[in-house]
Amino acid sequence: MPAESFTLAAAQIEPVYHDKEGTLDKTCRYIEKAGKQDVDLVVFPETYFPGYPYWRGSVSIPRWTDLMVDLQKNSLSVDDEAMDVLGDAIDDANLNVALGTNELSDRAGSETLYNSIFYFDRHGELMGRHRKLMPTQEERAIWGRGDPSSLATYNTDMGTLGGLICYENHMLLPKAALAAMGEEIHAAVWPGFWEQHGHPGDKTRAESADAIETCDQYPAMREYAFSTQSFVAACSAYMGDDVPEGFSEDELGWNIAAGGSMLINPAGIVKAGPLIGEEGLLTADFERDERRATKAYFDAMGHYSRWDAVSLDVSDETLSPFSEGSRGHHGRCLSAAAAQEIAEEYEIPIDAVEDVADAVSERNV
């Protein structure tokens, strides 16, 4: 049974910008710190590893290309050696982690980056990843679109965990899909906190908590919690006043990394935050009864639903260069002659041999 009480944390910390090793070291230190505070889940900001590309609209195309190559070299992939280091730190700290990261594709032949959340269990094992389904505006020149199959939830000892990235938290149907998957704890990752001046395309970095009056993030996170009856750990990026080595202040002209992390109960009550203008490990304690009490009044997956009136179609597709049933997986599928030879050697039906070969090939794409 999930725990009746638990502690959530938002690691609102500055990465060592564009530096994989430096960011890895700092990440492990904060995971250790969270473990010492008996945190059960710690969430890191959007593309915290190794930093959000605040330069995305402020540099020339040649400079953009150089920075993209640098970002590729310093991002994580699921088979990166850094994953073992992270796993060991998480295992030692005995907590769950949702890590916002620039993810380098693990598909053979690809160097595409994705805006992702990596989910780790208490043993440091990677439970899965979510790739942002639709990068926002100029972000589409940085990251690819995520696979539909990455919209998923994970079972933990605290309950069912899911998450969304930045403006995905405004997307009605993915939000509904996670609720339908039984999401109880929601990791929301953001690139900062802002003052909005009339519309989403006109925003500036938040200077104080007064920004809650115009920042769409503040009501969105409270409404996400209430409408889905989830515990929400919203973690927002923070960067200090010092310009990172190798950059100029003008190049980071879209720096909105003011922090703004919040921890919210299922009634939409902000129990900690927003933390503005400083680095910190924001924590709050929660009881499952906070969710039960809200659901007694408004249960989105029970008495307050009308699936006969409105229903949802969710894809579990993983995007692939090969069509279903294709046998052209870089020559790795078994030839008919080889399949016949194996079938005769082990005295099993040739259909079984071909099915296993296809399954292995699909998993290696």
From TrEMBL:
Q: Any keyword S-adenosyl-L-methionine?
A: no
Any single GO molecular-function term of the entry would be: hydrolase activity
Gene3D superfamilies membership: Carbon-nitrogen hydrolase
Specify the superkingdom.
Archaea
Instruction: Report keywords, A-Z.
Output: Hydrolase
Where does the record place the CN hydrolase domain?
Answer: 6-288
CDD domains hit by this protein: nitrilases_CHs
Kindly give the InterPro entries that the UniProt entry links to this protein. C-N_Hydrolase, C-N_Hydrolase_sf, Nitrilases_CHs
Which Pfam families has this protein been placed in? CN_hydrolase
Q: Which PANTHER family would you find in this protein's record?
A: CN HYDROLASE DOMAIN-CONTAINING PROTEIN (PTHR46044:SF1), NITRILASE (PTHR46044)
Name the family.
Belongs to the carbon-nitrogen hydrolase superfamily. Nitrilase family.
User: What's this protein's name?
Assistant: Carbon-nitrogen hydrolase family protein
Source organism: Natronomonas salsuginis
